[in-house]
């Protein structure tokens, strides 16, 4: 019997901008595409959905426009079992939009999010008790990039969590279409100092630290108090914890259909692993498996597996076709 979690506080709390997503349905690009597929995406809501599918209570909040795209996103996230009780539908600004095309084997995204409802988030609107009741707060650098007030929200939420003993997970999610590297560098490295778990990509770190060698990256990270989880190594993820560097191999993917959402899947798996009481390395192993499973299907969040699917992949259950 499924446990009734309606009155229980989320174990994971995260927040940020979720946007409508329109994807061109042929390889000729947006200019010539005759149909667009409607969905939504957002790093933080993707992670919340992933954690919920892995059997843990997750809460997401943010500001959406009180428009058809916003209500679609709100209902879809809620329908995935994620608590959206602190999310807001605003009539003062629209829901952001992103449009994606895939041409010549490359994906390009065009954002229409300036002055969106989410960019108007204010730190004084944060529900402190909601954050304080969680076990983990997950924040991304995308929130920091969309506006000055959203950055203030990110910093304030991290401070609230840390003062309450709530662990803070931070994925820098560097997006150079949202700000310059120079703007991003100081902010993201400052936020990393507030995190208990720092989840960057290796290429991101080389840009942020302005270095080229892996050893220089690890040397910089060793000065942080956070446990650093470095994605994007040569078929592995690095874990730098208390001065010890551990390599955690990837899981082999049988096919690669869509790499979008792989990082969010990894974060969801890692956080769920921590919530299950796993060690950092075992949590990273679960994150690696999630990332491997996500890229074998299409969609920002649709491809995120359930715990039953993950458990079967780990060999704990046998799939019965009929």
Automatic annotation (TrEMBL):
Family from the record: Belongs to the carbohydrate kinase PfkB family.
The protein's name in its UniProt record: Sugar kinase
GO-annotated molecular function: kinase activity
UniProt entry tagged with the keyword Repeat: no
UniProt xrefs under Pfam families: PfkB (PF00294)
Keyword line: Kinase, Transferase
Domain of life: Bacteria
Organism (species): Paenibacillus mangrovi
Keyword DNA-binding: no
């Amino acid at each position: 019997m499924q446990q009734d979690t309606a009155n229980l506080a989320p174990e994971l709390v995260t927040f940020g901008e979720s946007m409508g997503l329109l994807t061109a349905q042929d390889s000729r690009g947006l200019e010539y595409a005759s149909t667009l597929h409607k969905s939504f995406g957002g790093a933080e809501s993707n992670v919340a959905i992933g954690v919920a599918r892995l059997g843990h209570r997750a809460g997401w909040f943010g500001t959406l426009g009180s428009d058809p795209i916003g209500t679609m996103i709100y209902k879809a996230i809620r329908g995935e079992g994620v608590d959206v009780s602190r999310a807001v539908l605003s009539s003062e600004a629209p829901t952001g939009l992103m449009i994606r095309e895939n041409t010549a084997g490359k994906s390009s995204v065009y954002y229409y999010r300036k002055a969106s409802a989410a960019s108007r988030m204010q730190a004084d609107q944060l529900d402190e008790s909601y954050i304080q009741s969680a076990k983990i707060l997950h924040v991304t650098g995308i929130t920091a990039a969309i506006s000055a007030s959203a950055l203030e929200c990110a910093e304030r939420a991290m401070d609230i969590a840390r003062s309450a003993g709530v662990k803070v997970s931070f994925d820098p999610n560097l997006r150079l279409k949202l700000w310059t590297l120079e703007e991003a560098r100081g902010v993201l490295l400052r936020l990393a100092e507030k995190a208990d778990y720092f989840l960057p990509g290796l290429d991101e770190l080389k840009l942020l630290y302005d270095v080229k060698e892996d050893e220089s990256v690890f040397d910089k990270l060793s000065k942080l108090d956070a446990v650093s989880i470095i994605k994007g190594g040569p078929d592995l993820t690095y874990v730098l914890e208390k001065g010890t560097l551990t390599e955690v191999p990837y899981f082999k993917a049988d096919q690669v259909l869509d790499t979008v959402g792989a990082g969010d899947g990894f974060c969801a798996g890692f956080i769920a692993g921590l919530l299950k009481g796993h060690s950092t390395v075992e949590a990273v192993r679960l994150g690696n498996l999630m990332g491997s499973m996500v890229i074998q299907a299409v969609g920002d969040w649709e491809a995120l597996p359930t715990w039953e699917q993950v458990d079967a992949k780990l060999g704990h259950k046998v799939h019965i076709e009929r």
